[in-house]
Amino acid sequence: MPNPIRVLTVDAAGTLIKPWPSVGAVYAKTARKYGIEINDKQVDERFYEVFGQAQKNKKITLGEEKDFWREVVTLTFKPFAKGQDIDPIFEILWDLFAEGEHWRIAEHAESTLKTLRSRGYRLAVLSNNDSRLRSVLEDHSITPLFEEIFISSELGVEKPDPAIFRAVEDKMKEKPDGFLHLGDSYSRDFMGAQKAGWSALLYGLPIIEKSQITSFSELLDHLP
Predict the structure, then answer these.
(1) Are 203 and 182 within 8 A, CB to CB?
(2) Judging by beta carbons within 10 Å of its beta carbon (0-12, 13-18, 19+), is residue 33 exposed, middle or buried?
(3) DSSP state of 12
(4) Nearest-CA neighbor of 7 among 187, 196, 135, 208?
(5) CATH number of the domain within which 156 lies
(6) Helices (H) and strands (E) in the chain, counts
(7) Higher model confidence: residue 2 or residue 180?
(8) Above 80 in pLDDT, residue 3?
(9) Which residue, of 10, 33, 205, 215, is most buried by count of CB atoms within 10 Å of its CB?
(10) Three-state SS across 68-94?
(11) What is the pLDDT of residues 125-144, one digit of tens each?
């Protein structure tokens, strides 16, 4: 039976790209310049706790993209700042994470995606992210690999809402069974895509699904 998949969509943060050297390292280094004594691990743990809670708050996730991140940064530093104004730190961090310097492309991602394009697959990014993602991908010179870059803050809806998958289908002019989505979030990427009628692969560790890969190069077995 012929493979019906014609389009591969790839999640960004946590899948295609990862913060470098880590969120905690960049946040803590910046905060220390403003006199907040804090170590990288403390910030990293606090950040992911705050970020996870913030993602569930639709009032901020669907608001202005910069306001979402201002809230995350402010709450991340709140236990350590002793009342200090966090806004100058936030503004620096906002700009730092708009640059490719603080992100790394996943190992084998670029070569794998080039091979898939040569095999005739259409490629797109589908990310719960903000518009800074465009400059990050540009800095790493991988934007030309993708036909489209779909960003939740620009579309006004985010994974796992079926509406974001429908928006991608409309733009790409393909039916649900023609899509495969790759992402690191079980609820937003894997289940979101499946509920939209797409094929899905979970990315990363630990292994919790049969349809899961831990390296981009494994995509070549799924998309011959």
Answers:
(1) yes
(2) exposed
(3) T
(4) 196
(5) 3.40.50.1000
(6) 11, 8
(7) 180
(8) no
(9) 10
(10) HHHHHHHHHHHHHHCCCCCHHHHHHHH
(11) 999 999 999 999 999 999 99
